[in-house]
Amino acid sequence: MWESYKKGFKAYLQLEKSLAENSVEAYLADMEKLTAYLQVSNQMKTPEQVALKDLQHFIQWAAGLGLTASSQARMISGIKQFYRFCLLENITKTDPTALLEAPKLKRSLPDVLNFEEIESMINSIDLSKDEGGRNKAILETMYSCGLRVSEVVNLKLSSLYLDVGFIRVIGKGNKERLVPIGSSATKYIRIYNKDIRIHLAPRKDNEDILFLNRRGSKLSRVMIFYIIKDLAKKAGLTKNISPHTFRHSFATHLVEGGADLRAVQEMLGHESITTTEIYTHLDREYLRKTLEKFHPGFR
Questions:
Q1: What positions carry a catalytic annotation?
Q2: Are 189 and 203 in contact (CB under 8 A)?
Q3: What are the residue ranges of helices labelled H in the chain?
Q4: What pLDDT does 140 receive?
Q5: Domains of the chain
Q6: Over the chain, what is the mean pLDDT?
């Protein structure tokens, strides 16, 4: 009974929502859990018959299986998406998830690098090697533009508008955005293109990819992780550093510098402003210095 609904839901996620394959699979896995619960509790209902209390009991059941609060929250998100699809397709007339609450999540703040730490990592690159020139261009671009690791490895030559200071980025859900790029990143991309990439023979379907490995293929996400972990070690940094640390640092430095949150949201490619709001975290010392500098009554 539910299989046809799940097939329709999958097509909706892929075609209308343009979600990545792993996101689609995660949502479908959530629906599998829901139907499994309905079976084991001997109350196999249609989507129209499922009520809010059924879903609340399902979440309690999932929690009893040991699912963490974050897993429960993601599962509720998947079920909400399913019922949006049901309403669009007139499978249901009401949405039982409207009042379904997700568990409160404690937002952990990621490690952030200051400008000197980023500089020390970039200065640790061995520029006597070809991959050094490439890696410098990669790190400069990541920090200048706040890119996700997937956006870096998929960056195309045809998406560079360096003369006017912009790059075109394909983000989550194949959404495009234009991101300003700084003069330093522009300089090292040009050096990499002129002195290093020109000597590589790109593999088939990689001709338009900007950053290539020595075999002419697109870099993997894992390779970017390895490059950054290695440079952090060489720079003597003990923070938990990943490619995403550069994105976090980019956003945090903008917000601390007074950038408008909507502008940061646009540059990061966040669909919701609430995702961007994590970057409003400022350490106590920064807040104290700000008050000392700008508040006439602060002593």
A1: 148, 172, 244, 247, 270, 279
A2: no
A3: 2-11, 21-40, 52-64, 69-88, 115-123, 130-145, 149-153, 183-195, 221-234, 243-256, 261-268, 273-276, 284-294
A4: 95
A5: 2-88 (1.10.150.130), 115-289 (1.10.443.10)
A6: 87
